[in-house]
Amino acid sequence: MNSSEPLNEDRYEQFVAYLDGELDEASSRSVESTLANDEHARNEVAALARTWDLLDELPRVDVSSDFTEKTLSSVRLDTIVEKEDADSERPNGQKWLISAMLVVGMVSCFLAGLFLVQGISDPKTDVMLQNLPVIENLETYEDIGDAEFLRRLQEMKDFQDAVETQPE
Q: Which helix (H) or strand (E) holds 102?
């Protein structure tokens, strides 16, 4: 920091933190080095220190116990009134437009999510879903054995009679 540097916000905060004893050791040494070499900085810190001292000279004001509650209630009321005023000033066309934009946005998000999920789906899972009836009856198909048995069943005229004669 040189003497030509104005009191900017960062420098001000650093000097205030120095006066309050909030800086770490390295930062404190940096500020002290600046103060040793920069008369302008020394004057700024001295002015800040005098300001703090003057604040201590001001008389203390006692506030009632419900001061905070009254203040916050007033702020809440002002906020509600401002919101109602803003809503009442908005024309019906603008309210309709905002509602339509919200609906379009929600539908767009739904569709984007749907397409995203479809794009992410695993091809192996798709094949398994297509073959689900076969998978569900796999034990039955394993009991049949081979395809020759199925060909013989297909050649028989009366399938019901063949089922009755089949040994269990």
A: helix 92-120
